[in-house]
Specification:
It is built from eleven helices and eight strands. By secondary structure, it is an alpha/beta fold. It has a single domain, classed as Alpha/Beta hydrolase fold, catalytic domain (Rossmann fold, 3-Layer(aba) Sandwich), CATH 3.40.50.
Length: about 325
């Protein structure tokens, strides 16, 4: 019995030491990553959350951008901000817990939608056009369905909108576990992820080449800090359930919508998501771009600009 107790104490001590070492390493990497990618924009406090956003001042016509999973607001500044007319007031928001926006507690995706709506209202943006990518596809759709008087229209780029597949994976589930998840996020992810990331980035751009200095300009390394990795995993673990809840509500959408997808997308089932959305929202304009992957806003800025301008000329159904 004495040997068993001693063995358990040793195992406990080793486990405690491992957690402590992981915590120190992860905290150090979180600090160094954040220092290397300081917040370039401004903050607004909405409830208990400090929300970071980038903006390009222009005219009185606001366009609001929401990034997808594993990303941040810089994605838009380096892809579209310089490609859109100076007459537009562009605002890209870091979703809670990602980029430089804070997430004080776990948030459901619907709570995020409500928080983002409050953020847009607090920034004084009147009836903006929404431009959303990937995971934020369903969030943009819910903003139009839940707050129809507040948004002029929606451009969905490679958006997750239809209930198919599962955004969760072994690593997102592992990341949210109480003890193993802590070690995984604080010790393994910061050490291993930088070596895996280039292949994932290439898969997002396929079949186009990766934009030069993409990872550096977008500060994608922010994702590898423990807190952001946890927030991202929480979002991916619940995306399918949120689409299941949201899909029946798309019929409430009356504002103009543009669907922009690439036929070579390696990340989502592009034909199913686009077709499934249009089934519920028949007036949505469906654009499937040939030889384009999951990031059409980098290769076909002209199409995104065209659809933003189209929506600005339309009121109500097409």
């Amino acid at each position: 019995m004495k040997i068993i107790i001693q063995s358990l104490l040793i195992i406990g001590a080793i486990g405690t030491a491992a957690l402590g070492a992981a915590g120190l390493f992860g905290s150090y990497r979180q600090f160094t990553i954040t220092q290397g990618c300081l917040a370039p924009g401004e903050f607004v406090t909405v409830g208990q959350h400090d929300i970071h956003y980038l903006q390009r001042d222009g005219g009185n016509t606001p366009v609001v951008f929401l990034h997808g999973a594993s990303s941040n607001a810089r994605e838009w500044r380096h892809s579209l901000f310089d490609a859109l007319p100076e007459s537009l007031h562009l605002v890209a928001i870091d979703r809670p817990g990602l980029g430089h926006s804070k997430r004080s507690t776990a948030l459901s995706l619907h709570e995020q939608v409500q928080l983002l709506h409050r953020t847009i209202q607090q920034l004084g943006l009147k009836r903006p056009v929404l431009v959303v990518h990937s995971l934020s596809g369903v969030m943009g759709a819910r903003l139009l369905a839940d707050y129809p008087q507040h948004y002029r229209g929606l451009v969905i780029i490679a958006g997750a909108t239809y209930p198919i597949g599962d955004g969760a994976s072994w690593y997102t589930r592992l990341a949210t576990l109480p003890l193993l998840g802590h070690v995984f996020r604080y010790a393994m992810v910061p050490a291993i992820a930088p070596f895996i990331a280039p292949g994932i980035i290439q898969n997002n751009f396929h079949p186009q080449p990766v934009v030069p200095d993409y990872a550096e300009k977008a500060c994608l390394e922010l994702l590898f800090s423990p807190e952001r990795f946890l927030a991202n995993a929480e979002d991916l673990n619940q995306i399918r359930a949120y689409i299941d809840d949201s899909y029946p509500l798309y019929t409430k959408i009356r504002a103009p919508v543009s669907l922009i997808y690439g036929d070579q997308d390696q990340i989502i089932a592009q034909f199913t998501h686009a077709g499934g959305f249009k089934y519920k929202v028949p007036h949505a304009k469906y654009i499937m771009l040939p030889d384009v992957g999951h990031l059409p806003h980098y290769s076909r800025q002209d199409i995104v600009r065209q659809e933003i301008e189209r929506i600005l000329t339309v009121e109500g159904d097409d």
